[in-house]
């Protein structure tokens, strides 16, 4: 088992029904990841400890999903230099617009790469693309896999419409 390079975290275990899609995508690309629940509001110190230690533990990207007053991605981004991909998790009320606005409206200096509401699969893909931008053998392999993935998407459309 390789050491995880992606931290897939969320504010509550209730977010997993959305966030699982990011894990499935990472599995498709054979990217090792770890999963955890870190709440910005209920376990703030645990969240900060995780974010502060992430880079030193070998993580290279953090995917953070949260719903409602979704402060987890932004707070994690403030406590690490790693790229953070934020996933707005839709809750029963407000259809995830609250989550989206909470995550996307970051102050200058602390970026979070926000995907669409419920867009955990794209968050996984963005993490793969970030890892693929390196100069190491894993990055080479991932660039090849991403090219194959894109070709598969194209083929899917052509098969339907030709
Ligand atoms: C947020 O509150 C979590 O990310 C979750 O989306 C939402 C509701 O959490 P639970 O009450 O289901 O634990 O912090």
From TrEMBL:
GO biological process, one term: 'de novo' IMP biosynthetic process
Alphabetically ordered keywords of this record: Isomerase, Lyase, Purine biosynthesis
Every PurE domain range: 4-157
Domain of life according to the entry: Bacteria
Pathway given in the UniProt record: Purine metabolism; IMP biosynthesis via de novo pathway; 5-amino-1-(5-phospho-D-ribosyl)imidazole-4-carboxylate from 5-amino-1-(5-phospho-D-ribosyl)imidazole (N5-CAIR route): step 2/2
Enzyme class: isomerase
Keyword Metal-binding: no
Catalytic activity reported: 5-carboxyamino-1-(5-phospho-D-ribosyl)imidazole + H(+) = 5-amino-1-(5-phospho-D-ribosyl)imidazole-4-carboxylate
The protein's Enzyme Commission number: 5.4.99.18
Pfam families: AIRC (PF00731)
InterPro entries, alphabetized: PurE_ClassI, PurE_dom, PurE_prokaryotes
Binding site for substrate: 12, 15, 42
One term of GO molecular function: lyase activity
UniProt keyword Oxidoreductase present: no
Reported function: Catalyzes the conversion of N5-carboxyaminoimidazole ribonucleotide (N5-CAIR) to 4-carboxy-5-aminoimidazole ribonucleotide (CAIR).
NCBIfam families: purE
Family assignment from sequence similarity: Belongs to the AIR carboxylase family. Class I subfamily.
Record-linked PANTHER family: PHOSPHORIBOSYLAMINOIMIDAZOLE CARBOXYLASE (PTHR23046:SF2), PHOSPHORIBOSYLAMINOIMIDAZOLE CARBOXYLASE CATALYTIC SUBUNIT (PTHR23046)
The protein's name: N5-carboxyaminoimidazole ribonucleotide mutase
